[in-house]
Every structure is written in structure tokens, then in C-alpha cells.
Design goal:
The mean pLDDT is about 90. The protein has helices at about 50-55, 65, 105-115, 135-140, 150-155, 160-170; strands at about 10, 25-30, 35-40, 45-50, 70, 75-85, 95, 100-105, 120-130, 145-150. Strand 7 (about 95) and strand 8 form a beta hairpin. By secondary structure, it is of the alpha+beta class.
Length: about 180
């Protein structure tokens, strides 16, 4: 029976060698008998929200929103957009991650965001992370990840570069004290 990790953070341990996930934090959005899917929440892509909206023929009403960094959500489907947000499920294609957190993949949420009518808090990512049946459980057994709770400040407020240490700190871990972290700045 898989561990229900939906709405948990996966915090990469310093020794995790996979370049896609080194020093990453991934929010598990779905976890069941078939595997798991999540969005990395601390890795910047090369795009801004304005770039993404422009590719869709949309224009952001707010210049600050247009400059918002789009995240690299993971190596699976890097051409596909994902919006992690708070608020209700009033969008065409949303997955409820928790009582207050949703993942939406439909165009309507980006149209609303461009007009200033989107959710109060949202982050946009290109791509996602995926694990086949039993793969994530094995990675946890192999001590590649720590798990921790999700909070809105970490997802929507903290600077990207502060999130990895902050997520670990919230569960009482200081990476500077781990042997595998020695020598890393």
C-alpha cells in the first residue's frame, strides 16, 4: 500500500545526484497505487509569465505580473503549463491537492490571471515531476528525499533561492550539518 504523500513536500537531500532534482522542493499533487505526480516549486525557468501569456495571445494587465518568473516544474511534459493556486475550483481542469490548494491545467485560469481576475495566490510552472508505481516509495527508502508539510508562505511568498533551506528548517533539518552538504555554498 503506497504512502499517501499528496499535499506533502519532497525536499531533496544534498546527496541527490539527479540534476533535475538537486536542491529541489516538489509538491506532491497526486499519489496513488499507479505512482505520483508533483510540481517543483523552487526552480526558475527561463520564462516570465508575460512570455507565456504572450505565446498564448494574451497580455497581462499588470506589468509586475508579467515579470513573474515561471517555474521549471519538472522534466515531464516541459511544454505543458501548470498553475498551482489557492481558492476554489472554478476552472475547467483542476485537481484538488488539499482543502485550499489546487492544480489547474486549463487555459481559462491564465486568461483570468491576465485580466487580474485570477486566484489571490498562484504560481505557474512548465512541466511536472512524475514517478511510476513504487518509484517514489523506493526513492524515499533510498534516502533521496525528506518529506514535510506545505504552507502558503513557502509556496507563494519566500524567494525561490530560500525555499529549499526553509522547507528543511520547518522540519528541524539544517543541511549545513549534514556530511553530504559539506563544502557546498
Amino acid at each position: 500500500m503506497p504512502t499517501p504523500l499528496t499535499n506533502q513536500l519532497l525536499i531533496a537531500l544534498p546527496a541527490l545526484a539527479d540534476g533535475n532534482f538537486a536542491r529541489s522542493i516538489t509538491l506532491v499533487c497526486q499519489h496513488d497505487d499507479d505512482g505520483a505526480m508533483g510540481i517543483m516549486v523552487n526552480k526558475a525557468s527561463e520564462y516570465t509569465l508575460g512570455d507565456v501569456l504572450g505565446q498564448m495571445g494574451l497580455e497581462a494587465h499588470d506589468p509586475d505580473m508579467a515579470e513573474q518568473i515561471v517555474l521549471a516544474g519538472g522534466p515531464v511534459h516541459p511544454e505543458r503549463g501548470f498553475v498551482l493556486h489557492d481558492g476554489g475550483m472554478r476552472w475547467d481542469s483542476s485537481l484538488q491537492v488539499s482543502d485550499t490548494l489546487f492544480l489547474t491545467t486549463s487555459r481559462d485560469i491564465l486568461e483570468a490571471m491576465a485580466k487580474g481576475e485570477g486566484p489571490a495566490h498562484a504560481l505557474v510552472a512548465l512541466g511536472c515531476a512524475g514517478w511510476g508505481q513504487g518509484q517514489l516509495e523506493q526513492e524515499l527508502t533510498d534516502n533521496e528525499w525528506l518529506t514535510g508539510p506545505v504552507d502558503a508562505e513557502l509556496l507563494f511568498t519566500l524567494p525561490l533561492e530560500a525555499r529549499w533551506h526553509a522547507a528543511a528548517g520547518r522540519i528541524g533539518v539544517d543541511f549545513a550539518h549534514l556530511a553530504d552538504y559539506a563544502g557546498h555554498a
